[in-house]
Design brief:
The structure holds two protein chains of two kinds.
Chain A lengths: L2 E10 L2 E11 L4 E5 L6 H8 L7 E6 L2 E2 L4 H6 L1 E4 L11 H11 L4 H14 L15 H13 L5 E5 L7 H16 L3 E6 L2 H7 L2 E6 L2 E6 L1 H8 L2 E8 L5 H8 L3 E7 L2 E7 L3 H12 L4 E7 L3 H9 L6
Chain B lengths: L1 H16 L1 H21 L12 E7 L4 H10 L2 H4 L2 E5 L3 H10 L4 E5 L3 H6 L7 E4 L4 H26 L10 H7 L4 H4 L3 H16 L1 H13 L1 H7 L5 H29 L9 H26 L2 H18 L14 H4 L2 H14 L3 H28 L3
Parallel strand pairs in B: 1-2, 1-3
Antiparallel strand pairs in B: 3-4
Helix pairs in contact in B: 1-13, 2-10, 2-13, 3-8, 7-17, 10-13, 10-14, 10-15, 10-17, 11-12, 11-13, 11-14, 11-15, 13-14, 14-15, 14-17, 14-18, 17-18
The chains are: A alpha/beta, B mainly alpha.
The complex binds adenosine-5'-triphosphate and magnesium ion.
The site of adenosine-5'-triphosphate (ATP) has 13 residues of chain A, from strand 2 and helix 1.
């Protein structure tokens, strides 16, 4: 176990920002911490980094209690803060070197690592530039470079892609996969479903300080979904077919609008072939078929009755 | 230590790149000293400064006591001191307390006897603290007399009894009290007060620098590395102290060599005083930002209190507060530092210099204590 959080509690006055949270991150995982604004994600990370006092519970990293062996633990963690934390009046190189030195790197080792970190962030050609001239995406990438310069065992990323262009976002997603491939365990915080779905091996969904679901992406979607939504595009509007399809066992709902047929079914793949047989038997052709599997978005919706981005 | 040095160097580097602040800290005072130094020159010419009121209690009936009376009332000293003769110590102290004069000079009954017996003598005097410049004038006057008295004593031991007969006029001619040595001109005055003001404005570096690098996102990021809190805080404070101290040195050198400002003979002590007031300034900025947790608010507060400190210290126009309000000046760190500097340059009482330095050091310690407590108390 690389990171273990047990019964973690944090209160701000009457607000319970983190409410008895348990988390276990295994070595080699990309662990996704998903939740809407105010779920308590950053608060957990602040307690992990020793920036915020723990009201109750404990955090154990690399088998060590962070309350007691903070220095050792911190040296092996890299943090990408949610809020940009770079100096605008130091060059990209100087920024990364500054944090490299604080992590104890010196001399040629430092030079080599800083170069690697900048390359990793796709900023090699901007090494001598000042971040105040950077785009939002470039600043975000520099923010990441500063966190990986010392090759941490655990990389903690707090919403590293907030408010950036798709190109930088793709670069960051690629970089996360790459650094994971090299053996770094990653704790990835986000409220973008797509990102977490794309990269994370284990996911915890939080809301209002509490964990409301956990598991792999498949386990989570399985957990809430007993139905598939099928959308078929037909060659003609065929109203009689609706009744026929409703007779198939497992079909819950069926409706046609113009030439588009929408069918709600239980999770059973045989239904699809039976349906297509029924349709073609009437002489109507199926031009396209789209199976809409449940997403984490729908998981969250199901669990909380709210969408993630409201 | 290494990590503290890293933070120290980064702070220095960032400050040195901050051109706006550099202009304000260097160019601005150079211009202001020039303007004030020349525009207000006339009000600073020596003969327009009124003589200082002193009380003299002369209990010595001997020969030298007599010399002293004619010395202190001689024409040469009329521009510097106005003498009131008092009859008893009680009367003198009473008048001093009432502020009727600034200093009470006392010659004890055995003064002449002590000089003749070969003892090295000094003349006692008590003073009101509110105007150190005037006190230093009085001290100079007394010193030039005791130097004579002690010289007399040397001559006596050499057997030159007759030489004692030389007149008090001669004494003064031999040891002239040169006005330029005991009082600053306008340029000399403003070079000191503006240097103190600018060093105090150095507090802005810590208000913004500590706000960013200790409290805000970057501060948290630095705290997430294995750096210890003391190294973190210390590196930032020392980086800002070094920045402002270096700027102070440049100003001192510029006013000394370009404007020809008189910084006196004891430069090491001036440099120490400058260092202490720099620590006061950085400590003050750090304390305010640690308490308010807000750099902009802190700079607003500093923008109010530093001009007040400077005004109270007589930094813009030379002022002294009437007796009862004189304590007001002591809340101003500029005033304490200025007093110490003027005392050092113009030979004012050393004891007072040390007292003001001590006061400043206390101030530094309390700002850091408050800053640390504010840091601990924060609900995190
Ligand atoms: N310093 C603080 N003082 C008071 N309340 C706080 C503080 N920090 C966080 N909170 C509250 O704790 C809750 C959790 O906040 P947190 O920042 O951890 O959420 P988050 O999941 O990171 O959200 P986001 O996606 O917006 O970053 C929120 O209700 C927030 O208002
Ligand atoms: Mg957050």
């Amino acid at each position: 176990m690389l990171l273990e959080i047990r019964g973690l509690v944090k209160r701000f006055g009457d607000v319970v920002a983190v409410d008895h949270v348990n988390l276990e991150v295994q070595e080699g995982e990309i662990f996704g911490l998903l939740g809407p604004n105010g779920a308590g994600k950053t608060t957990i990370l602040n307690m992990l980094m020793g920036l915020s006092r723990i009201d109750d519970g404990e955090i154990i990293v690399f088998g060590k209690d962070i309350a007691r062996q903070a220095a050792v633990v911190k040296g092996n963690i890299g943090i990408v803060p949610q809020e940009l934390a770079i100096y605008e009046d130091l060059t990209a190189w100087e920024n990364v070197a500054f944090f490299g030195k604080l992590y104890g790197l010196r001399g040629s080792e430092l030079t080599k690592r800083v170069g690697e970190a900048l390359e990793f962030a796709g900023l090699s050609d901007k090494a001598k530039d000042f971040p105040r001239k950077f785009s939002g995406g470039m600043k975000r990438r520099l923010n990441i470079a500063c966190a990986v310069v010392h090759r941490p065992k655990l990389l903690v990323m707090d919403e590293p892609t907030v408010g950036i262009d798709p190109q930088s976002r793709n670069h960051i997603m690629g970089a996360v996969k790459e650094i994971h491939r090299q053996g770094t365990t990653i704790l990835y915080t986000s409220h973008y479903m797509e990102e977490v779905e794309e990269i994370c091996t284990q996911i915890v969904i939080m809301d209002q300080g509490r964990v409301i679901a956990r598991g792999t992406k498949e386990e989570l979607t399985e957990l809430v979904s007993t139905e598939n939504r099928l959308v078929l595009e037909l060659s003609a509007a065929n109203f009689t077919i609706v009744d026929e399809i409703k007779k198939i066992s497992g079909v819950k709902e069926c409706a046609i609008e113009d030439k588009v047929l929408t069918v709600l079914t239980t999770k059973n793949n045989h239904i699809i072939s039976k349906m297509i047989d029924e349709i073609t038997a009437t002489g109507t052709e199926v031009y396209s078929l789209n199976v809409q599997k449940p997403t984490l978005e729908s998981v969250f919706l199901t669990l909380t009755g709210r969408t993630l981005r409201d | 230590m290494n990590r503290m040095f890293t933070i120290f160097m980064a702070t220095l580097k960032r400050n040195s790149r901050d051109r706006g602040s550099l202009l304000q800290m260097l160019l601005l005072p150079i211009v202001i000293i020039f303007i004030l130094g020349n525009a207000l020159h006339s009000s600073f010419t020596y003969d327009e400064i009124s003589p200082t009121n002193v009380g003299v209690l002369n209990l010595d009936q001997g020969e030298i006591g007599g010399y002293f009376n004619s010395f202190i009332e001689s024409d040469e000293l009329q521009d510097l001191v106005t003498v009131t003769v008092v009859e008893s110590k009680e009367e003198g102290m009473e008048q001093l307390k009432r502020g009727e004069f600034l200093a009470l000079i006392e010659l004890d009954a055995n003064f002449t006897q002590r000089v003749y017996s070969g003892e090295k003598v000094a003349i006692d005097f008590r003073y009101r603290p509110e105007n150190p410049l005037r006190v230093s004038i009085v001290e100079h006057v007394i010193e030039s007399f005791t130097e004579q008295a002690n010289l007399t004593q040397v001559l006596l031991t050499m057997g030159a009894t007759e030489n004692l007969a030389h007149s008090s006029q001669d004494m003064i001619k031999d040891y002239p009290v040169a006005a330029s040595e005991i009082m600053p001109g306008a340029m000399d005055y403003y070079a000191v007060t503006m240097l103190m003001m600018i060093i105090m404005y150095g507090a802005m570096y810590s208000a913004f620098g500590m706000g960013e690098s200790y409290l805000a996102a970057i501060g948290n990021r630095i705290k997430s590395t294995p750096v210890r809190a003391a190294e973190h805080y210390g590196g930032l404070v020392l980086g800002n102290v070094a920045t402002v101290y270096f700027q102070g040195l440049i100003l001192l050198a510029f006013t000394k060599y370009v404007y020809g400002v008189n910084w006196g003979d004891n430069l090491p002590l001036i440099l120490i005083i400058m260092f202490v007031i720099t620590c006061v300034s950085i400590g003050l900025g750090a304390m305010i930002v640690m308490v308010t947790k807000d750099s902009t608010l802190s700079s607003g507060i500093l923008n109010v209190i530093i001009p007040v400190f400077t005004f109270v210290a007589g930094g813009y126009i030379n002022l002294s507060f009437p007796g009862k309000l004189s304590w007001l000046q002591y809340i101003s760190p500029n005033y304490l530092a200025q007093t110490a500097v003027f005392n050092t340059i113009y030979g004012g009482p050393t004891q007072q210099t040390m007292l003001t330095l001590g006061g400043l050091i206390l101030f530094v310690i309390s700002t850091f204590t408050v800053a640390m407590m504010a840091q601990r108390r924060t609900a995190r």
